[in-house]
Amino acid sequence: MSLNWLLVFIPLALGLDWYGASPIAIFCVSALAIVPLAGLMGQATEQLSIYVGATIGGLMSASLGNAPELIISGFALKEGLGDIVKASITGSILGNLLFSLGLSMIFGGWGRQRQQFNKTVAGVNGGLLFVAAVGLLIPALFHFATGKEREVSTEIAIVLFFAYIASLVFTLKTHRQLVETEPGQYGPGKEQVEEEEGRWSKGKAIAVLGGVTVLIAIMSEMLVGAIEPASASLGFTPIFAGVIFLALVGNAAEAMNAVRFARNDQMDLSFGIAVGASTQVALFVAPVLVFLGYAVGQPMNLHFTYFEIIAITLTVAVVSRLTSDGECNWMEGVMLVCVYLMFAIGFFFLPA
Amino acid sequence: MSLNWLLVFIPLALGLDWYGASPIAIFCVSALAIVPLAGLMGQATEQLSIYVGATIGGLMSASLGNAPELIISGFALKEGLGDIVKASITGSILGNLLFSLGLSMIFGGWGRQRQQFNKTVAGVNGGLLFVAAVGLLIPALFHFATGKEREVSTEIAIVLFFAYIASLVFTLKTHRQLVETEPGQYGPGKEQVEEEEGRWSKGKAIAVLGGVTVLIAIMSEMLVGAIEPASASLGFTPIFAGVIFLALVGNAAEAMNAVRFARNDQMDLSFGIAVGASTQVALFVAPVLVFLGYAVGQPMNLHFTYFEIIAITLTVAVVSRLTSDGECNWMEGVMLVCVYLMFAIGFFFLPA
Amino acid sequence: MSLNWLLVFIPLALGLDWYGASPIAIFCVSALAIVPLAGLMGQATEQLSIYVGATIGGLMSASLGNAPELIISGFALKEGLGDIVKASITGSILGNLLFSLGLSMIFGGWGRQRQQFNKTVAGVNGGLLFVAAVGLLIPALFHFATGKEREVSTEIAIVLFFAYIASLVFTLKTHRQLVETEPGQYGPGKEQVEEEEGRWSKGKAIAVLGGVTVLIAIMSEMLVGAIEPASASLGFTPIFAGVIFLALVGNAAEAMNAVRFARNDQMDLSFGIAVGASTQVALFVAPVLVFLGYAVGQPMNLHFTYFEIIAITLTVAVVSRLTSDGECNWMEGVMLVCVYLMFAIGFFFLPA
């Protein structure tokens, strides 16, 4: 199940770039190259977190776990592609909550009557998703209600980031035992690493982390540069590319883990990856990108399109409803994937 | 409790039509004539399903159970009354989820502290309703976000229909025992028939099915022809007539069964009828009408009005919330009926 | 914890008014003076209710508990400040559901793993909130869908008021024992009074009630007269003043009680105050103000702004989700307060 063979796409991407290949080829190959790098970065983070104690380790895991998305988005932001960055935030939320979680429920639930997961954790995550939905909705709502351009994005980003900090205190301090009913629940990479590869030395973990970061940065710059011409050649809007494809690149490795844990009937792990990734994108990645936007001189707002905010809000409502009972089955997975398909159809036909 | 005495309205309707009576009279009488015919069609389907084995029987019951709506809507579609057809879809969803289910909770819950029903079944149905709400919302959202007319209705209809097929596999195959905790749960007509009338021969069932189909078709053509002039005479908009009256015609017999089962404290049956009818209208009738629209040369889209989609979305959210705990009481029924009344007020005053 | 020392602001307010002080000073001082008066009115109502039997007492408590809001809003309505009245209804709903309940969960949950409350009561209250949200949404939706000015507010107000009456029958008659699992659950003032001050004589209760009503009326007139000039001086819009400040004035005493009960791990009481206040504002105060509007010759509609209705709808959805499991913790409180802050940011920047 390892995706490491995809690393072969790194030299291929560099070669294609050197020979000035078509943007479509560069987009696809650099995207495929990032998938195993994102997976390796997660592994290295988990390995390193073993050496720094549980709390700092949890913090590292929660923040560095989103490094691939942040690196890709940072380059896109620098190129003035703020709308595509926002589309990839939307896509990351929809993709994780509907596609990854849906596939997990289908593959996990097939052949089983039901699968169970921790209701309280699901409740807290469901609540955080609602907070995120409100935060991503207010700037657009503000624009709609007033027709004015005064952005409230920075203030909203601060509140979202505060909610994220509070959730870390909850998860890593006051309710630690709640989310640790199964070992490694919020560090699924950890268990995977231990099973498959044993413990790394501290030096190896740091070296891998550094090397992978540089490689992701190089691939991301190529990927971002190819988005617009590649989308144009393929007849996609850049928004569709952002919502569907860009969002998958940073999350594919995690999605595969989520499905694998579900298949093993470890729905708590699966749920932790898919829903955790969504809350982190909304409460950590999105605010950090707003702050980063000021740093790179390309201020980003949180003014999403109507189609995006309604998609996010309804997705949160559906997932929240289906997970409130602490049980799932394959049919609920089919529902999530159907909702994903319908939104994807909408985004596909939306004009630029 | 039999509604068969209403069959007397069939000859009356034919007579009124012959003598060229007022559209109001023809509308009312043909509508009343369809009510017992829809009930009889349900009975005949249940009877026939006994002879064909459980799975085929379940399929027949799930698809033929919607035949009256499909026949009425087919004639309306042929007459170019697509908006009224969509209004009757909206009305069927609101009427079943708010009015039928609300009345069932009131009559069933009065004098009892609480009534209980299967939470898992309620969860799956609640999820399907969300899928339906998203599907019926996207075309309008698409139109709103873009101002363009590109319809995504056919693609959405295919996804909704796929969700319907999957739900049949879930109900009739993989989770059969879940929905059969009480005998005949999803075939309430069956139990009713057995209690009241005994088993029919296969020939009788087929003959009744054929005869009733012809009569429904004749009454439907008269009903559809009278909608617009009758609405105009009564000061209603055709949309109000579709949402409130037309929706009741095909569902009145089922609604009475739902209330009766609730009174007997068989809320699972009651719930199965009211919520099942809504999911079938959204996931089976609506897509089939889109496909049928191409066949009759009057393509129908799923572009509902804003008022309709917000009514559907909020209704799904309210019902989903009230049924998530597997318990109900009369006050929850009052809430559903109040929400129905408020939407009915809105539709009444909406200009054409 | 008594707020009675704030009574000193009554003579201060009168003095400032006499000397023609700045509107800001008059607004603040008269607002502070109303806080203890509202608390005293609640106490007097509870004391009096002891003498009239449980059912009449419950009715008195449910209706007179909202007297301060009604008095303030009545004066504002007479001055033609209908938009500010509606803003204070919005603010009262948001403030109670997000700020009071959120603070209660934070202060009550800190140092505890979880707090529990009655799920069935939470379910009924959650349902009533949805009914309220639909009712407050339809007039704006009607306006949006049609662009026409035909108001449906009076009809909607009648349905909301009917739902309120039904909920009183539920609470005081058919399901009395449900909400009385802890003594005084829906009369938190009662317990507080008994603990702190003993029983009052019937005469004292009536005298206090009368005196307090007169004082609230005087202070309210001063407060209402100062809203617009004070808001202008402070750089707030009147809507922001209504949503945030005016809403707090009538509810501050109750909010403090809610937090105090939460701290004592009596979340059912806390929940009853915060959520009960919201449902009463939406189902009793709002309709009564519509009826009162006709009486004072300043008809008020229920046409809220988009920002208000989306804020109310999402708030109801969030609270409904977080309370559906009958458990809470401090993180859920942080979420509610974060959502409150984000809406407050939105209202702050909204132009008049």
From TrEMBL, chains A, B, C:
Topology in the lipid bilayer: Multi-pass membrane protein
Molecular function as annotated in GO: calcium:proton antiporter activity
Protein name: Ca(2+)/H(+) antiporter
Gene3D superfamilies: NCX, central ion-binding region
Main function: Ca(+)/H(+) antiporter that extrudes calcium in exchange for external protons.
One annotated Gene Ontology cellular component of this protein: endomembrane system
UniProt KW keywords: Antiport, Calcium, Calcium transport, Ion transport, Membrane, Transmembrane, Transmembrane helix, Transport
Major localization listed first in the record, in broad terms: membrane
Domain Sodium/calcium exchanger membrane region: 24-172, 205-348
Sequence intervals crossing the membrane: 20-41, 48-67, 87-110, 122-144, 156-172, 205-227, 239-259, 271-297, 303-323, 330-350
Localization, UniProt: Endomembrane system
InterPro entries: CaH_exchang, CAX-like, NaCa_Exmemb, NCX_ion-bd_dom_sf
Lineage per the UniProt record: Bacteria, Pseudomonadati, Nitrospirota, Nitrospiria, Nitrospirales
Span of the signal peptide: none
Family: Belongs to the Ca(2+):cation antiporter (CaCA) (TC 2.A.19) family.
GO terms for biological process, alphabetical: intracellular calcium ion homeostasis
